[in-house]
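Why run this: before we spend reagent on co-expression, it is cheaper to look at a predicted model of the complex and decide which construct boundaries make sense. The entries below are exactly what would go into the expression plan.
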Amino acid sequence: MKDNKTAVSVKNLIKKYDSAGNITCAINGISLDIAYGDFLMITGMNGSGKSTLMHLMALLDHPSEGELIIDGNDVSKLHEKNRIGLRLRLLGYIFQEYALIQELTALENVMLPAQMLDTFPKAKKKAEILFKKVDLEKKMKRLPSQLSGGEQQRVAIARSLINNPRIIFADEPTANLDSVASKHVLDIFKKLNKEDNITIVMVTHEPEELAYASRVINLKDGKLHVK
Amino acid sequence: MLNELKLPFYLAFKSIIRGRKWTLFLTILLMSVAFINLIFVSALFNGIVAGSNQQIIDTLTGNVYIAPKQGIKYIDDKEKLLENVRAENGVTAASSGFQIPGEIERNARTGRWPIIAIDPNEYAKVINVSDHMYQGKYLDVNDEDQIIIGRQIAGGTDVEMNSTSLKGASVGDKLNVNFNGIKKTYTIKGIFYTKFIESDSRAFITERSLASFAPTMVGKATAVNIKTPNDKENSVMSEVKGLAPDTDTFLWTEAAGLMKSVSGSFTSINVLMTIVGVIIAGVTTFIVIYVDIVSRRRQIGILRAIGIKPYIIVANYVILAAVYATLGILLGSLIFFAGLVPYFIAHPFELPLAEAVLNLTPAEYFFRVQIVSWVAVISGLIPALIVTKTKMLDAILGR
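The model came back. Tokens follow.
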């Protein structure tokens, strides 16, 4: 069942980088609405602006111009303190390189964001449930270095889910995985989208992965490109 | 909020138990070296000053001494004064000496040095010249024609005042002593060497010997020396003040002479070296923590990306710095108190003034503990603040 409310709304978004006086426009006036319940895939060539757009929508970076509305709130000029709150409670982010803390076990990595809001036992209980969801309950006490790439990415997925976010951003989550591991990750996303109604926004290079999406957009030179 | 507050401790704890053990060990070792550097120099200078001061007390004056008022030559009834002094609380021992002006001659070399008539047994309880016999023996009460002289009088190629000494007098040699016209010949019974020049520039004869050529001086003294525990010398001084007429009472510090300015200089150098030590400790800690934090820059970026508040990340590193500092201080203290201090007690620094051991008061130790702790906290705080202020994506993507 889909929620009619808009999860993310981007209006004329621009992101410029100034490198020693050379201005590069990575995102050049993109406007886009993502509804709750969407499974949106973003494709495009290297340097098309896919990751930059993801970083902006996931509040990891600030736009140069334009409007960014998340869950009905304008967050374009939001103070970092409030952005942290949104990242913690509303959004989940999955990096291409897993981005796990190497000194923490898989379980501790997943529990970490929950410990900002819950007690240790409660966070642990929530994390253990998520490990079942990503089919890793037997390896949750291992360190990231003791897990395969696919397993680390599933830990990263569990971590992104720990505070029950409504939107998950995944930046090429299967780029470093073999086909079996990639399918496993995509199946989890599909299940999360279908069963838990979590909005998924994912960047991919792989055409065969597009079948999982309910909607696909293509970027070229920082702009939406209609094929 | 309480959950949040626990998080920095949790992260620091995990970082310590799961981090690289060698890196942790080397970090703690470096911190301990910085701490030892801070306490060692201070302890050494303290030791030199304390050693020299103790030399004055042990070999020259005692903790407190009583002397005739200016213009008065002697303490008339020394036995009564000694009896009264010994009865006072805190007095460990008391003894007297009668200093006679005299010229010593040997093999046509002459010089004027203080010659002091003593009761050898009682004097040894206050002034420990008897423990520093370099050659021969200490005086006996019944000795009459025997004298003991300091090494600065006897002379020798390694003696500081050799040029004005008797240039190589040794035990058994005869010395002619002229006490303002009264001439007497003594045999050198012993040569003492306290390593404190002023003490080693004196000679001692017995009271019995004094009585043989100046019987009217029996029962008189030019000084009464009092031994007390070092922490009771002030109270003893006020107790014994005024026990005999026409006398003044002094602390050993009054006789410190040149050592006063030497001690003052050492104290100034000590302060300077402490400042240098603090800077070294600060820079070392800063580098250690900074390198540690910079190597975890990506991790800090990830923590921020998943919603961990910056103050938690900063607090995590401040706690880590405090833990490094605490463990460094503990290791440094262990090396210092269980290794260096006993070693230097067994093998003291041989200085011209005295033998010095490491000497650090609890107050000085805790002051330096505080310095290193604060420096560590600040050294953890600054780089953590810098890294948490950098752009999140730059930290994560290593740009």
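The radius of gyration of chain B is 31 Å. Chain B is about 50% helix and 15% strand. Bring this page to Monday's planning discussion.
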